[in-house]
């Protein structure tokens, strides 16, 4: 125990004395929020659409038909009332909903405004309003097709975004950013600090000592787990204070999921370091193996729905993809484990497998 | 455990794929001896040492270090030995004192002992004034002496030195060997690998490894007599030449 305490103290000294790296780690979230705060627009397709049509008639059926014919939409539910919508959105089963007013055709015939609501889930970056515009243009086209009939406003669409009525892009980026920063701290820094010990020969000295492999691993990994944890708190507070990003769900759950994700990333870092012998290579490995996928394939910047099928499939093995979904759902939708257990389970599985693999590769080096 | 034997190897072998790095070596190193492991680069001396200190599992053969079996009692071996590699094994961004404290803690020494021993050590090395300097800022020769002393901090029965004098000047090397003699005089067994032939003369006994085998073993004087050579350099060249030439035919 005393030996372990010594190891931990030493690791913290390494971190605190390497001022430049420490500054990068601390300042990164701040800078990243600003960088990624700028919107990145992307195309969307296969939008999961729910339709609420209290009294189907020839007009609503025609609009529904046109929506379904468009490649952009897949109808997942046709409902009579708006009550089930909440559940659909929270589970992520629906990303957009179109709600027709009752007696839609009758009101149109009588020259009264027929109201239709277009609701989009805005928890994914920049795609919420794009999705609304798709639906809107379908309705407008239909309206123009009525053409020469009675003048004046016929269909009155009302746009609404769910979960995030203000649609600040920072709200959407912060959860993704958490994944990104955690990846850097856990995977990159662990990989580098482990390879540094190999490079300088100190790892050998530790392996020759009576320390058990498990102690060495804990001694190397725990400090970064702690820093990662602090960094999650920092991002949450920053998001709250500077960008007014809400935290609608449980902080405890978010921190738990964060810790789980850190464990997964740490193991990846250890795996990378066990395959490399120089810090430079470890850095490249960590960038290619963890940072880039986290940035590009996790849904952090580009929505997974609009990726080609192969990439969508690949994204499933990226730990950050699951954590980003979890973090967004907790922060912006306020849902709990009852909805997030599948994603949590995936992360748990990844943690077990990767920790096992990396511990094993560590042992192999001893023999 | 055999009386007075610090390291005992019988037919010890290590194979990497098709390459036999250490080929059935047998030796006995007496307690308190300074034993030199000589050989060209790649002759297998570091591989042999790594098997003794538990960094590498042997492919076959047996070995006992400090009386413990290398296969089954590596934990006990680790407590009884000290190790210093050619890369010194010190943390450059920690101070001298912090390095001493860290290794003291790793070897489970009590705080009081660490305190007392580090003051003694610093006084002996003449580094009291520099104890709070980071290791990166002290000269190579100092690092080397410090690294050696740190490896002795827990008072191991055997110390393994893997090319400890690489890259330092002859005077510093001389001073370093003074430290080795002091340790041996205090009863520590020393196993040292080197490819400086003048250092071979400082050892009680040496073994010269050629292509994974022990080409010759004995005191420096014996070896010079046997090979009819004036210096260890000549002994080494005579031994190593047949191996690099036709292959077979070593003594």
Structure at a glance:
The complex is a heterodimer of chains A (about 375) and B (about 250). Chain A is of the alpha/beta class and about 375 residues long. Helices cover about 65% and strands about 10% of the residues of chain A.
What does this 3D model show about the protein?
The complex is a heterodimer of chains A (367) and B (251). Chain A has 367 residues and is α/β, with parallel strands linked by helices. Chain A contains 14 helices and five strands. In chain A, strand 4 (114-121), helix 6 (127-146) and strand 5 form a beta-alpha-beta unit. In chain A, helix 10 packs across helix 11. The longest helix of chain A is centred in the middle third of the chain and has 32 residues, at 169-200. The two termini of chain A are 24 Å apart. Chain B starts with a strand and ends in a 7-residue tail after the last helix. Chain B is globular, with a radius of gyration of 19 Å. In chain B, the strands form two sheets. A six-stranded mixed β-sheet of chain B has the order 6-7-8-3-9-10, with helices on both faces. Chain B has a four-stranded antiparallel β-sheet with strand order 2-1-4-5, covered by helices on one side. Mean pLDDT of chain B is 89; it is low at 244-251. The interface between A and B is medium-sized, with 24 and 30 residues.
């Amino acid at each position: 125990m005393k030996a372990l305490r010594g190891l931990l103290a030493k690791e913290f000294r390494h971190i605190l004395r390497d001022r430049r790296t420490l500054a990068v780690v601390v300042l990164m979230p701040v800078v990243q929020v600003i960088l990624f705060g700028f919107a990145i627009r992307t195309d969307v397709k296969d939008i999961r659409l729910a339709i609420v049509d209290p009294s189907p008639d020839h007009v609503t059926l025609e609009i529904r038909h046109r929506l379904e014919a468009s490649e952009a939409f897949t109808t997942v539910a046709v409902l009579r009332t708006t009550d089930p919508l909440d559940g659909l959105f929270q589970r992520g089963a629906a990303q957009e909903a179109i709600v027709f007013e009752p007696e839609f055709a009758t009101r149109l015939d009588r020259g009264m405004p027929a109201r239709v609501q277009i609701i989009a889930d805005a928890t994914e970056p920049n795609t919420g309003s794009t999705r609304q515009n798709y639906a809107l243009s379908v309705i407008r086209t239909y309206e123009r097709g009525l053409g020469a009939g009675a003048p004046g406003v016929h269909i009155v669409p009302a746009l609404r975004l769910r979960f995030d009525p203000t649609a600040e892009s920072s709200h959407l980026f912060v959860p993704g950013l958490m994944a990104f920063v955690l990846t850097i701290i856990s995977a990159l820094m662990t990989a580098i600090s482990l390879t540094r010990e190999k490079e300088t020969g100190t790892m050998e000295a530790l392996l020759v000592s009576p320390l058990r492999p498990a102690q060495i691993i804990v001694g190397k990994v725990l400090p970064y787990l702690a820093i990662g944890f602090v960094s999650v708190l920092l991002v949450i507070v920053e998001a709250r204070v500077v960008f007014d990003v809400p935290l609608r769900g449980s902080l405890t759950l978010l921190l738990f999921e964060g810790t789980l994700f850190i464990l997964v990333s740490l193991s990846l870092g250890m795996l990378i370091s066990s395959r490399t012998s120089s810090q430079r290579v470890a850095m490249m490995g960590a960038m290619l193996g963890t940072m880039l996928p986290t940035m590009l394939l996790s849904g952090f910047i580009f929505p997974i729905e609009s990726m080609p099928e192969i990439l969508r499939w690949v994204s499933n093995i990226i730990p950050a993809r699951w954590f980003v979904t979890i973090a967004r759902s907790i922060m912006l939708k306020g849902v709990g484990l009852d909805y997030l257990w599948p994603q949590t389970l995936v992360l748990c599985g990844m943690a077990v497998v990767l920790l096992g693999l990396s511990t094993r590769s560590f042992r192999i080096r001893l023999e | 455990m055999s009386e007075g034997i610090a390291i005992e190897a019988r037919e010890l072998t290590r194979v990497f794929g098709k390459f036999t790095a250490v080929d059935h070596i047998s030796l006995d190193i007496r307690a308190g001896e300074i034993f030199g492991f000589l050989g060209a680069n790649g002759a297998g001396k570091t591989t042999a040492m790594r098997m003794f200190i538990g960094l590498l599992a042997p492919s076959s053969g047996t070995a006992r270090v400090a009386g413990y079996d290398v296969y089954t009692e590596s934990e006990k071996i680790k407590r009884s030995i000290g190790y210093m590699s050619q890369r010194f094994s010190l943390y450059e961004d920690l101070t001298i004192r912090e390095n001493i404290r860290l290794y003291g803690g790793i070897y489970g020494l009590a705080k009081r002992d660490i305190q007392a021993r580090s003051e003694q050590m610093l006084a002996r090395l003449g580094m009291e004034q520099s104890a709070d300097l980071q290791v990166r800022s002290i000269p190579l020769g100092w690092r080397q002496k410090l690294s050696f002393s740190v490896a002795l901090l827990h008072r191991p029965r055997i110390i393994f030195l893997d090319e400890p004098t690489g890259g330092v000047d002859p005077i510093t090397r001389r001073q370093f060997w003074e430290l080795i003699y002091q340790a041996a005089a205090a009863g520590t067994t020393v196993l040292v690998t080197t490819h400086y032939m003048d250092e071979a003369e400082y050892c009680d006994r040496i073994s010269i490894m050629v292509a994974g085998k022990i080409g010759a073993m004995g005191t420096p004087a014996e070896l010079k007599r046997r090979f009819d050579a004036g210096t260890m350099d000549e002994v080494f060249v005579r031994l190593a030449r047949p191996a690099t030439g036709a292959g077979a035919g070593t003594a």
